[in-house]
């Protein structure tokens, strides 16, 4: 359980999150993931990083139970900072990051995948931001990197999900494969990238980030300000208390 790393082939580092049962990460888990991705990117022997997860789903966002146990706002602030740290680590990784997604990719999972350079997904993968159902906001910045603007807004307001096949049609998922072939497909793409010159691939990553039209770090932190406002006003707790109970706040 936790974050682990492996080097299955020349130039490729795999960073894997394992937080049963659904990969909802605690505050420290987000920072551990960020540290592992940054360490991989800084290693001169690494030319591509694969971001993966164990279990039935890739990522279910933050650990809501951890937030509920906190009578104040320290857990929320910690989750905000942890998510921002992990999302930035993926985006700013000095080499390309390939996300390998199975099952659910929700909330913070969208932040990770939306900031990755390429996405390989299982045919059972679903992507979405159920934030409004959980008393939170955020990661629209990253969902907008996966789907067109109006679809992003509709998905955000409704908390609906989209499939890997739909994202493949939009061009944001590179390949959809059976679950049994996910690891192999992700490693195959990573190995192809890793065959490039190490210095040149790092320059390419910096150049592509430099021409992005949106400052993803600033945009996401702007969104998080409204998450905290919802918490201070009591709105977040009111909505969060209905989560999983089939109630409308």
From TrEMBL:
This protein's UniProt keywords: Lipid metabolism, Lyase
Signal peptide positions (record): none
Top-level taxon of origin: Bacteria
InterPro entries: ClpP/crotonase-like_dom_sf, Enoyl-CoA_hydra/iso
This protein's record includes keyword Lyase: yes
Spans through the membrane: none
Descriptive protein name: Enoyl-CoA hydratase family protein
Organism: Streptomyces katsurahamanus
